[in-house]
Amino acid sequence: MGLLGRLRKDWFMVGILVVILSARLMPSVGVKGGPLRPEITIAYVAVSLIFFNSGLSLKTEELTSALLHVRLHLFVQSFTLIFFPVAVWLLLQVLALTSIDPWLLKGLQTVSCMPPPVSSAVILTKAVGGNEAAAIFNSAFGSFLGIVVTPLLLLLFLGSSSSVPFSSIFSQLFMTVVVPLILGQVCRRFLREFLERRKLPFGAISSAVLLMIIYTTFCDTFSNPNIELDLGSLLLVVVIIFSIQLSFMLLTFTVSSRSALGFSPADTVAIVFCSTHKSLTLGIPMLKIVFEGYEHLSLISVPLLIYHPAQILLGSVLVPTIRAWMSSGPKAVKLSNLQPV
């Protein structure tokens, strides 16, 4: 694949670098009160558009076949929304004794509170030949669950900015996340055939809007002369993120592949990816709402921006290995042949 093809494939990653650089060069454009008016266009319009788009693209009609596998879903959701944030919190108690930027450490905690993504975990599960239906269900259900659980976890572990009342946070979450998501699902019921026929680029639309949110977030940072990013801390955080990813993938694989739990190899694949992947699409808008008023919001966002490509990179690298493991063991069992629990 040539350079142009690689750039086209990874345009979102390139876009993140471009918007951060643009924010560094022209921070006045995206700050509050600036030409973009992010307090309106981003806080309400962009965030609402992302979740309306998610509701419109989410194929909830495909989830019924996976609904009865309660044990698998309980494993994934418990790991990603309970074990993951608690384990990271314990790790941060140790890392707090180091010289790593405390705002980046807070960012690591925010990563742990995020639900699984709707896209990457499903794509990688499918690429390996895993239980795609279970991956779709847990990604979609996790996103719905994350609307309520993620803000609560963020407030529990990190608190909120003093400038935004607790009630205001959840009213804005309801208006910009829940309502658009429901509207998107309602519209999908009437437009399903059209949407399936036209194959609209839902992912690209959300990613483009997400770049706008990232841009304005970093505009606020670069317009504040009191905020500096410690490169040493950043490199350490990158290492920590990859270590967390690998450790948790190994942990979920080791536990879920035990015969005593009764998961098939296909189930294990879905568990590994869904339990360890975190949603950037939900995460960045959520942070923008919950931590409105934090001058260090962009620093808190950095670990999530790193975690996103890290999970895709590691997952892609491990696809051949996991596929080989599946082919060497018992054949993947189709979801319809499994007994629900």
Automatic annotation (TrEMBL):
Keywords: Cell membrane, Endoplasmic reticulum, Golgi apparatus, Ion transport, Membrane, Sodium, Sodium transport, Symport, Transmembrane, Transmembrane helix, Transport. It holds the Pfam family SBF_like. The keyword Protease does not apply. It is found in: Cell membrane; Endoplasmic reticulum membrane; Golgi apparatus membrane. It is a multi-pass membrane protein. GO terms for biological process: bone mineralization; cartilage development; sodium ion transport. It comes from the Eukaryota. The chain crosses the membrane at residues 12-29, 41-58, 70-91, 103-124, 136-157, 169-188, 200-218, 233-255. Coiled coil: none annotated. Its main location: membrane. GO terms for molecular function: symporter activity. The keyword Cell wall biogenesis/degradation does not apply. One of its GO terms (cellular component) is Golgi membrane. Does not show transport activity towards bile acids or steroid sulfates. Belongs to the bile acid:sodium symporter (BASS) (TC 2.A.28) family. This is Sodium/bile acid cotransporter. It comes from Nothobranchius furzeri.
